[in-house]
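Query structure, 470 tokens:
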């Protein structure tokens, strides 16, 4: 017995097929702009990229599309209100700046001259993040065409950053400055990916990040290890003991108070992670590593996605040149990063680290701790109605069950969650082989159009199934 035809899906796919060539032509034009935010010489290109996107959004139908300046690179804001005043307000986040790229880095073609090979579009920014931003333009038009609407089913806003690849130094201030215009019931982040081409997934959270540098000082200058060794404290030894004390024998972080507030994995979440086709040997090859290690009682995916960590990013002190130099060094240092999960407060972690360090040091060792700006973790509950809409929309587009992942890294999405008080959801179609930040970055065109289709289904589903409390 044949399955009933989903007329909405059919209408969306027909519209996308009819406009595929023009969509890809426009994306190719945008990808030609080398909007490398990390390189000052490309500042005019980043501005040109923002201007290009604002004009494209106007052409798409957004009645408001503006370039917002920052002390660094500009962002783009767009808004398209729904005719339904009670509809949810949704803010889409992405970025239009890209990583540096040059042919001599190992590219098979010019990184800013897009080329299609074997159904994949190769160019810097194809996946990270211009392709995933741009699929929303065709997605909203397909949504309107399939439903006969003249405005989206939701109040739709876009905020497309220009400094994400440079660490988003001005992003939070930008969000705070424009918080009244950015207010939203939910944030959709399209700067992420899926498990694989044949396993569509939705990310439900990202870890936060706190970083610090600890400097230890002993003698006022390097001194002779024969004349003074064993009688004065050695900063290099002290930093080694400090690092060794970071974890207990079960690889748990040993700083008192570090785990305060941690939202533990539920049994259902652990079951969902276990359903993913995870090949640990293959993962180890990707990690260029020879064995797994981490907190006892958790799987590899659980450790990466849902557990907090303390990592040594760099350590040094004393003589590092050829041969020997028998001294007690005057100073030593260590750089630490802490990945944080839902429920942890970066400020509390900073205070815990600051209180812990002095107790690990011998008399005669002075210390300084410098913290970098922190990023909060974000997590969307599995039963949130907006997340359910994302899953349904992706399932219709891919004609497949949608599974769940998290992201071990950190990003500026948490700033939107903090300032706007809105849940953050993730909608991305990129896959690990797309080579973000690497030579020959690409996006699979079929997957890119599945992103378009998901976007087209999402707005109507949100309006139908979710009415946020006023």
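Result returned for the query:
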């Amino acid at each position: 017995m044949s399955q009933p035809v989903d007329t909405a899906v059919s209408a969306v796919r027909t519209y996308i097929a009819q406009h595929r060539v023009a969509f890809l032509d426009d994306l190719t034009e945008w990808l030609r702009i080398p909007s490398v935010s990390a390189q000052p010489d490309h500042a005019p290109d980043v501005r040109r990229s923002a201007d290009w996107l604002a004009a494209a959004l106007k052409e798409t139908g957004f009645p408001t599309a503006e370039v917002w300046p920052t002390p660094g690179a500009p962002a783009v804001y767009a808004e398209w209100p729904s005719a339904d005043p009670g509809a949810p307000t949704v803010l889409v986040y992405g970025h239009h700046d890209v990583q540096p790229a040059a042919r001599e880095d190992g590219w098979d073609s010019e990184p800013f001259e897009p080329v299609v090979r074997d159904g994949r579009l190769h160019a810097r920014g194809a996946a990270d993040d211009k392709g995933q931003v741009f699929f929303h333009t065709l997605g909203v038009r397909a949504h309107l065409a399939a439903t006969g609407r003249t405005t989206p089913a939701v109040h739709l806003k876009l905020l497309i950053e220009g400094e994400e690849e440079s660490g988003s130094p001005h992003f939070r201030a930008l969000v705070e400055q424009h918080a009244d215009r950015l207010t939203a019931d939910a944030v959709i982040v399209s700067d992420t990916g899926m498990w694989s081409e044949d396993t569509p997934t939705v990310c439900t959270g990202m870890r936060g990040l706190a970083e610090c540098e600890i400097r230890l000082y002993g003698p006022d200058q390097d001194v002779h290890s024969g004349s003074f060794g064993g009688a004065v404290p050695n900063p290099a030894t002290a930093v080694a003991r400090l690092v060794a004390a970071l974890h207990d024998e079960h690889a748990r972080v040993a700083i008192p108070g570090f785990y305060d507030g941690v939202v533990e994995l539920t049994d259902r979440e652990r079951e969902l992670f276990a359903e993913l086709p995870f090949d640990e040997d293959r993962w180890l090859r990707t990690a260029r590593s020879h064995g797994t290690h981490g907190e006892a009682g958790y799987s590899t995916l659980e450790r990466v996605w849902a557990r907090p960590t303390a990592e040594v990013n760099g350590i040094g002190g004393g003589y590092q040149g050829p041969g020997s130099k028998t001294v007690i060094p005057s100073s030593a240092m260590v750089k630490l990063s802490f990945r944080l999960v839902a429920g942890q407060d970066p400020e509390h972690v900073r205070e815990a680290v600051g209180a812990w360090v002095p107790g690990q040091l011998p008399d005669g060792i002075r210390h300084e701790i410098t913290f970098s700006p922190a990023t909060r973790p974000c997590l969307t509950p599995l039963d949130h109605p907006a997340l359910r809409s994302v899953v349904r929309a992706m399932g219709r587009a891919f004609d497949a069950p949608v599974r769940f992942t998290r992201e071990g890294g950190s990003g500026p999405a948490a700033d939107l969650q903090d300032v706007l008080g809105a849940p953050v959801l993730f909608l991305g179609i990129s896959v690990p082989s797309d080579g973000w930040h690497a030579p020959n970055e690409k996006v699979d065109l079929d997957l890119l159009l599945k992103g378009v289709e998901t976007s087209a289904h999402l707005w109507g589903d949100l309006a139908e199934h979710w009415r946020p409390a006023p």
